[in-house]
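Aggregate trends can hide what the representation actually does to any particular protein. The sequence in question and its structure tokens are set out directly beneath this paragraph.
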Amino acid sequence: MADNEDAGATVAEPLDLVRLSLDEIVFVKLRGDRELKGRLHAYDSHCNLVLGDVEETIYVVEEDENEEEITRTIKKQEEMLFVRGESALTTICNGHRR
């Protein structure tokens, strides 16, 4: 699939990309208008993830008295976080070290 093979760092299956992103910063979009950015420490075949040094962003949509939608952003920091695979919509890997 990949023409340039960097010492076994090829992507033949989707989880290979996740494997190559171990110890790298990843971005995860979750259900419920939540996003995570953190260092990938571990994963499994169900796409459960363990992230460290995580910044969580939560978007809360509310209506004001004029019935206009206002989006509030809440940011949280977590030292370590377990993400259940079924709650992740998208995982963006920034690439791997060479």
User: Anything to note?
Assistant: Residues 30 and 87 are 6 Å apart (CA to CA). Helices lie at 14-20. The two ends are 19 Å apart (CA to CA).
